[in-house]
Amino acid sequence: MARKPIVKIDCVEVWRQISNYLDNEVEPELRAVMAAHFKDCAHCSAILDGTRNVVKLIGDGKAFEIPAPVSQRFYVKLDQHLAAPRPKKRGR
After folding, report:
1. How far apart are the C-alpha atoms of 83 and 22, rounded to whole Å?
2. Would the pTM count as exceeding 0.70?
């Protein structure tokens, strides 16, 4: 049975898939939908750019270890942000 192509994607799903997107490990249909989302969503586009920059920083050999308390706070904030309800966009 053929799968139906994904037509739209929300920000949370984009964030979940952003690493796979950067690594070119998403299906072509999902990649196209995500690319369209990045064109329409400044917030997700900024996250994509930021994630890409982090990957470059880590890969340049000059990476440094983040202190555990800072890392833990980051992950707590990230979890809270991802779990928070998103306001509905107007006009869609």
Report:
1. 23
2. no
